[in-house]
Amino acid sequence: MGAYLIYYIIILIIPIWAQFKVKNTFNKYTKVQSTSGMTGAEVARRILDENGLYDVRVLEHNGFLSDHYNPANKTVNLSTDNYFGGSISGTAVAAHEVGHAIQDKQGYAALRFRHSLVPVANIGTNASWIFIMIGLFSHLSGMLLLGIILMSLGVLFQLITLPVEFNASSRAMDQIVTLGIINNREEHEARKVLNAAALTYVAAAAVAVLELLRLLFIFSNMSNNNRQ
């Protein structure tokens, strides 16, 4: 019982800590204005145009840290503060989202694989716990295994997200440095923003893997008991 309590505390603390880190870092550098004076929207437009992505639009999007690139309609969506603001945080986030647009243009393999996983990962994640709960309460190892297999699709999606996000951040830093959007001091600060944001994906993947391993351990024990 004590081990399970520690486990649940750990998987609860990991995402909370990651969210605290990213919000704290983002808020800190939102107060630091970029010397270029460019808004996030201008940064995104500049990088897009430099990479020949004239058809990709930059849009304002409601919500705190809701920034994202939508490959379906080719839009870079920036939260209001990042869209209109000229902070280091806004610059880094805008460049990161454009990094995904550049990945899309170049056919980055990990991004394409992640996109192909979206429908099956959603179905697997939503349906997995139905079979897992049936298996756990009914002591049916087959049902539990089916739930684990479905859940693994969601875990795979979380894992493939990591190289996609890290690569987008790497592309972002290359772009804002090469184009002179930030100076040497700001490069260090922008990198801190991107590294903090990456923690949320690392935390989500870590929690998903830990939960999958826990269920595999339960399945192993249940299968051994059923054979006895």
From TrEMBL:
One Pfam family it belongs to: Zn_peptidase_2
Superkingdom of origin organism: Bacteria
Keywords on record: Membrane, Transmembrane, Transmembrane helix
Keyword check for Transmembrane helix: yes
The keyword Transmembrane helix belongs to this UniProt entry's keyword annotation: yes
Regions that span the bilayer: 6-22, 117-137, 143-164, 193-219
Protein known as: Zinc metallopeptidase
Organism whose genome encodes this protein: Heyndrickxia acidicola
